[in-house]
Design goal:
heterodimer; A: about 250 residues; mainly alpha; 8 helices; B: about 230 residues; elongated
Amino acid sequence: MGTWTWFHKLSSPPHFYRIAGKMIPWFAIPAALCLAYGLYAGLVLAPADYQQGDAFRIIYVHAPAAWLSLMCYTVMAVAAAVGLVWRIKLAHALAAATAPIGASFAFLCLATGSIWGRPMWGTWWTWDARLTSQLILLFLYLGYMALRSAYDDLSKADRASAVLAIVGIVNVPIIHFSVTWWNSLHQGSTVIRRGGPAMPPSMLIPLLVCFLGFTLLYAALASIRVRAEVLRRERHASWLSQWSGRAGRAE
Amino acid sequence: MSQPTTSPMRAAGLVLRRDLALAFRRWEQVTHPVIFFLMIATLFPLALNPKPSLLADIAAGVVWVSALLSSMLALETLYRADVDDGTLEQLTLTGQPLALLLLAKTVAHWILSGVPLVLASPIVAIAFGASGTANGVLMASIALGTGVLSLIGSIGAALTLGSRRGSVLLSLLVLPLVMPVLIFGARATDLAMHGDAANGPLWLLGSMLIFALTLTPFASAAALRISLE
């Protein structure tokens, strides 16, 4: 079976619904293992920072949340573009399912940063570049979700919000650099930087495992949410009533 | 669709002239956003301590925030009337490039909503006690900035046409996208008011305008086609 036919088959709702259902444990179980190890190693085993003490440990949640908030926006915009160009409804379903997850991670990132900032910077919030651009990212998610909910017609909601997601992703670098040039207090990058990571392996490895764990968690959550979207969108489709009829008889 | 006999540029010119002619007969469409702009600026001295030194410090920000909010208000009128009477639907059926026609409408909208703000902004700045030497930079930055606001706003206006509760939604969509304009516009004005060179942020605003000019008409056209279906 060629890649193209495989792709086409995947974009048919009944097929996708089944595959996504099978994939959930493959994402969820490694996610749980990674997070269990990563968080335990990060929060308990890793040595305290010589400067920040135990407070630095919030990075094991904060940094993966920041990464996922950006990754979710990219997934959303790419899925929206695919849905708009090739008229694939499942891509729209993926974008719709991803937005609230991304918004939650953006919020989690802001909240953990704020909790860390209180003892470290002595303030809950400061109008620093990184904080502000993350806040604007959260606003972009909220605008996207607001536009989606303002349409009754699902196909219009899909395409209108897709245009917004694409315009948004073009604007994300502009927003990022504008706020960076505007003002900065946030510490620079620790993991990816010239000259290798500025962390000993006992701190770094749990962090990388946490990144992986949170990304897998996103994959599991997205699979569950896309399945729910498919059910909502296809509730009048014949394959679904056949399936539920069969399930009903089996019981 | 039959081949149109008018050239695209001429069609765009006609749309531009039509929108200007209509607006000059409905004068309040031009005056209301300016009055709104002056009123918002008035709120700041009322809410804050009207100390001259404080007001001169915040003048750049006040002018810019007021201009931003006022142009949000004006965006409502960009497509609404033409959708209600079916003009916009006819425009999509002319066979002319829709992006170009919408660009013409947006330029007309900028002349009607942006230019009055450009002219009114020095009044507010002087009333806040800012030095008059910065007026050139202030007006240039408002002119460039409102251009970007109109262009990005036209995408938002087109997207919210087909939805319920348009006006709050429009601000929710557009405000996060235009925050860079506010940053550089207010920065340029602030630098000029303190007697520094404001070339950097002005050039950035100019490049943002060119970027928006080349790309947003296509997004607006796509959004409008979705909303009008």
